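[step 3/7] inverse_fold.run input=structure_tokens len=225
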């Protein structure tokens, strides 16, 4: 337990320092060495736990997932459970807001970065579905994952421009996206792990962020690039 706690504290410190470096210097100048020195962490341990910049992003994503799953709701509708889980992920990103915003600005000029974040987002959304009681397995599960990715991207776009303390605009965007997707096709599964969704959004699996559109995503109206 002590080693796990030490590792978690180390990772938190390095990720926080890396996000500060991101905010100041941008993604293309981010260095794990610089982040470790900023946080006064031993370089040999930083190398062992974070072999490169992408490892920092992967750890940040897992931190967001873990924060959501640690308090995963066991009651309520699937929609309500997903709302809670995704907002908990947003809260973790909010703790590193300036760095995350700098990262998102780098996406249009870095296809490998967008691919990495797109794949990581799909894995995270599968975890969120399963935690909410909806199967993410098989072909139908893949469709559900794609649908939740669309909801997440819409929410993330709203969060990028939401500087309010209560994140009212972000919560409204997430609520609207979940409601619209649920009404349009029922791809969330209606709380039953084996129900069959009628459709799912056609979302680019490599997308991590995209410009805002005028309406939240639905299975027939996915967010565009």
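[step 3/7] decode complete -> sequence:
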């Amino acid at each position: 337990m002590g080693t796990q706690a030490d590792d978690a504290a180390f990772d938190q410190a390095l990720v926080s320092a890396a996000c500060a470096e991101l905010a100041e210097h941008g993604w293309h100048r981010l260095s794990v060495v610089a982040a470790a020195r900023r946080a006064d962490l031993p370089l040999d341990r930083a190398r062992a736990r974070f072999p490169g910049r992408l490892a920092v992003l992967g750890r940040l994503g897992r931190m967001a997932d873990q924060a959501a799953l640690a308090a995963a709701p066991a009651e309520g509708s699937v929609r309500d459970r997903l709302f809670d889980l995704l907002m908990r992920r947003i809260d973790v990103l909010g703790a590193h807001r300036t760095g995350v915003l700098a990262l998102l600005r780098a996406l249009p000029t870095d296809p490998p970065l967008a691919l990495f974040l797109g794949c990581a987002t799909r894995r995270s959304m599968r975890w969120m579905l399963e935690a909410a009681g909806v199967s993410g397995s098989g072909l139908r599960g893949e469709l559900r994952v794609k649908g939740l990715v669309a909801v997440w991207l819409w929410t993330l776009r709203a969060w990028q421009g939401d500087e309010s303390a209560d994140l009212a605009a972000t919560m409204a965007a997430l609520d609207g996206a979940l409601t619209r997707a649920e009404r349009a096709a029922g791809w969330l599964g209606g709380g039953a792990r084996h129900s069959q969704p009628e459709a799912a959004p056609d979302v680019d699996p490599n997308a991590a962020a995209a410009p805002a559109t005028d309406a939240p995503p639905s299975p027939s109206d996915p967010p565009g690039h």
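[step 4/7] annotate
Residues 2-25 form the longest helix (24 residues).
The chain has a mean pLDDT of 84.
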